[in-house]
Amino acid sequence: MNYRIRMLIAGIWAGIVTFIVFWISLITWGRPFSAWLYARMLGGVGMRILGIKVRVEGMENLPSEPAVLMANHQSNLDAFFMGTMYPRNTVVLGKREMLKVPMFGIILLASDNILVDREDAAGAKKAVSEATAAIKKRRRHLWIFPEGTRSKGKGLGEFKKGAFIMAIAAQAPIVPIVNQDMGHLINTKERILKSGTHTVKVLPPISTQGMRFKDADRLIQELRELYEREIQGF
Q1: Is the pLDDT of residue 113 over 80?
Q2: CB 124 within 8 A of CB 116
Q3: What is the 3-state secondary structure (H, E, C) of 189-224?
Q4: What angle do the packed helices 121-136 and 161-170 form, to 10 degrees?
Q5: What CATH number is associated with residue 79?
Q6: What is the pTM (predicted TM-score) of this model?
Q7: What is the pLDDT of residue 187?
Q8: Which domain holds residue 151?
């Protein structure tokens, strides 16, 4: 199948998954189960539609204790690439504007995710408190894209401080999740889609115990250098 046909079928599958999980999210409201189910259904079947096999290395590095899971963000297809390894009992830090997406916005809300208005300074402070509570009180992993937005194939974006402030506030370990550059299989501009294997690496946790907010800049630099090395090594 060519690019357009595979992408069309993948889009249809995403719509089917959204419809199914929407109803399940209403029943399981307030628990992250529907987000996990959405990710697994989307990635499990979606990657087969695209003809891509996902190889996850280092799943043993996911700790049993609550952690901040940080993954580099390339495109909307990341939900397909990383859906198969999305852990249970995980909430996502996302943009509040995504609530406007029909059905999907309800799934986000029902799954107890943390949604932030990036233009609202007070909301950002509230998000730190909500993230800390999710990790420490509700014992959940927190999934964050530290770049804050999609890089759209332009390499690793700038890491935002907020993700690291949240990890330090909760004194939770950071688990780097390195998503291979999808350009070796997909080029959306030129409409190229190749069959092959895409790798996602889960690296050993990095402790934030004893760190203070003033350590965030140093931590950002260390993590960014780590991601750059791993991405170049694929």
Answers
A1: yes
A2: yes
A3: CCCEECCEEEEEEECCCECCCCCCHHHHHHHHHHHH
A4: 40
A5: 3.40.1130
A6: 0.91
A7: 86
A8: 3-232
Please check whether residue 224 is in contact with residue 159, taking contact to mean a CB–CB distance below 8 angstroms: yes
All residues at 6 or more sequence positions from 107 whose CB lies less than 8 Å from its CB, including other chains: 18, 21, 22, 25, 34, 35, 38
Cβ neighbours for 33, distance < 8 A, ≥ 6 positions apart? 24, 88, 111
pLDDT digits (tens, 9 = 90+) for 10-54: 999 999 999 999 999 999 999 999 999 999 999 999 999 999 999
Distance between CA atoms of residues 99 and 85, nearest Å? 24
Q: Which residue has the tokens 């509040």?
A: 96
Class of residue 17 by CB neighbours under 10 A (exposed 0-12, middle 13-18, buried 19+): buried
How many domains would you assign to the chain? 1
| pLDDT surpassing 60 at residue 218 | yes
pLDDT on residue 94? 87
> Confidence band (pLDDT; 50, 70, 90) for 230?
very high
Dihedral, CA of residue 118, residue 146, residue 87 and residue 181, to nearest 10: 120
Can you tell me whether residue 113 is helix, strand or coil?
coil
Tokens of 142: 């927190």
One-letter amino acid for residue 98 of the chain: M
Which residue did the predictor score with more confidence, 148 or 196?
196
In terms of C-beta density within 10 A (0-12 exposed, 13-18 middle, 19 or more buried), how is residue 60 classed? Answer: exposed
The mean of the pLDDT values for the chain is 91
Q: Where are the beta strands (DSSP E) in the chain?
A: 52-57, 68-71, 90-95, 114-116, 141-144, 174-179, 186-187, 192-193, 196-202
Map tokens 């799934």 to a residue: 107
